[in-house]
Amino acid sequence: MTQDMTDKLLIRELIERWAVWRDAGDWERFATVWHPDGVMMATWFQGPFADFIRVTQEGWAKGVSILHFLGGSAIEVAGDRAIAQTKMTISQRGPVEGVLCDVVCTGRFYDFVQKHEGQWKVLHRQPIYEKDRIDPVDPAAQLSLDAVELAKFPEGYRHLAYIQTRIGYKVKLDMPMLKGAGVEELYRRGARWLAGGELER
Questions:
Q1: Residue 100, domain extent
Q2: What pLDDT is attached to residue 201?
């Protein structure tokens, strides 16, 4: 097996550990997937990984339910740096206008991954939000959304933003989506960093 293949397998293992340990609430091991300078970007949180762990724990204590499922990965390695794109879904369950609902958002994790002390770690995670939907957990339930409020949110994560604002989170409204200037700039940032440039936060 070539070094390139070995690195890609180790990075994929890192990405899988992120999802499994985070969703299991295994915070001690979850912290080990991160680079010391690691940053998490999400609709409802942007900042250092240690703060992300703290606010996620606080959300758990309040009953916030967000889970992740992974699909395929495309990984580019350049020395001790890599860009990994991984298909994923974000599933959040919670009350929406008095009805218990599931919101499912499909997208990609766009990860800046770097070796630290000989091991691959997540330096910067930027999700790309492609499309989402909302469904009552009880299919017989009647759900009525505020159409004006819903229209304020970006198309790629409109329903996810809706449920998150309803439970008190402030949602970032300029996250990268399937198309558009935001995702094109993310690709350029990734290419510049992979070629040896500074990481642009």
A1: 3-188
A2: 85
| pLDDT band (50, 70, 90) for residue 94 | very high
Residue 37 lies in a domain: yes
Specify if 81 maps to a domain: yes
Q: Distance between CA 82 and CA 79 in Å, rounded?
A: 8
- pTM exceeds 0.85, yes or no: yes
Q: Dump the DSSP string for 47-106.
A: EEHHHHHHHHHHHHHTT-EEEEEEEEEEEEEETTEEEEEEEEEEEEEEEETTEEEEEEEE
Q: Tell me the sheet residues that pair with 101.
A: 94, 136
Pair of tokens at residue 198: 């500074």
The pLDDT, as a whole number, for residue 115 is: 98
- The reply to whether 157 falls in a domain is yes
- Single out the residue of 8, 33, 32 nearest to residue 83, CA to CA: 8
